[in-house]
User: What shape does this take?
Amino acid sequence: MTNASDVPAGEPAGQNPARRRLPFWLRILVPAGLALVVSLVVGVTTATADLSLGPHEARYDVTTDGGITVDVGPLGTLVMSSPLPLTLGVRVTVQEIPASVTSVDASSTLQSLSGDLQGYLQFFSGPQATIHDVTRALVASAARRSLTVLAALLGLWFGGRLILGARRRGELAAPLAPHARQLAAASLVVVLGLTVLTSSVGERDRVATMSVGSPVFDGTPLEGARVTGRLAGVINTYGTYVLDAYRTNEAFYAAADDAFTAAWKDRQSRIDVPSVVPAPTPTESPSATVAAEPVPDDKQPIVLLLVSDLHCNVGMAPVIRSAAQLSGAKVILDGGDTTIDGTVVEQYCVTTFAEAAPAGVPIVTSPGNHDSKETSDLYRNAGATVLSGKVVTVEGIRILGDSDPNATRIGAGTTLVGKETSLEEASRLADVACDDTDGVDLLLIHNPRVGDEALDRGCVPTQLSGHLHTRVGPMRIGSGVRYVSSSTAGALLGEPTVGPLHNTAELTVLRFDPVSRLILDYQLIQVRTDASASVGPRIPWPRPVPVSLPNGIR
Assistant: This one.
């Protein structure tokens, strides 16, 4: 028989010690907190992603050494301080250039090597795009791994409770109940210990104590990076040439952007503002003025910016951004061939162009023959709307388009992607446009010929294309109007699109009338090989021929 003196303070006399329970916060909240911390620590410190670095495939792994290390195997490493918190870093293991890039014959070897050089230089020109891609991929990997670990721990927790049963759990908890505060403190120590131990390194291993970085990188995004192994000799000896090209590239496009901005402001200052004051009525004095009624927002022209055939020339990204901002563009239209060879290592290209769009300005693209399903998926993931044979509505404009049925690859020529030919795609898109009860305002398609049938049948009033690297139009084709944009990268056949322009680059500003649902006018932007720029006047757009369709008059 239990004496009252044997019962712990606060315990009702006669209560079974086996029924003593730990406080709720200790039974549930502390284990849940431990599980969450462990899951996050494991998830973050084991995150990994397979992406690209320049023309190479690369594997990115989160580390806890406080540095960003680029491992190029026997050649050595490139090391720089990490901007991540808690001494987290990233190790980049550079792998081979994909077979899709290197599988060329002897006659194409020089061209292939030139393409590799473009990849390196374009990475230097736009490293932010790669950083953003890697960040997103590692965050996604860390989240997946954390959720997996948390699910496993929760499974073990509830499985253990089920196996033990309520009675046995009570028996095990009874001896611990008087020590709840000590257990809580111990749990806190474990949590802090796990956090510190998995996110810190020895002082002598910290990147901050590393030797002075290679002077070759001074003034570049890699300033302060340290190079080890044979790679140090290669970079210190030959890196100057690559970085000279990088600096020349940066200076050229900075000057081009400044020249465009000045040209745009000059053109705006010379625009004749049409009078909005109506003529006086017979009862009014000729000197009387009547204030014009403001145009409602839903009837204001919608500004579109058309680019095409960028071919990974990320140097033009700042110019595209400036053009979108200064023109007040509501939509950026990309006529395709955003990449060079449609490989996944060109992810930094599509990401750079996607991020060139000002906040809130969507990009709509019709992939070209130099793009691929892989690069289109990457462009879509970066925020672009990729046309796929269905009508999409963007800023109230109904747009139709699709990927080019052909694929052009370095060393392999041009082949069909699937079974559909250009003529068959043209017929399919024409059917879609003609059958659309709400009407199609704009056909955005890379190859101009794919729009022939839709224009001939009068099912679209306007077609915008690229592909030819030469501006054609605007001109009436069939019952509509076609405009072919020149290359926004200044692309020439057989010439690389990296470095300063080899040919004049062009962008086109169009104004769309939401009332008539037609293009009002267009304005040409040109950036030349000497980094000068010009902005043309607004030129009226040709009127399409009115056509009777089953759904009404267009």
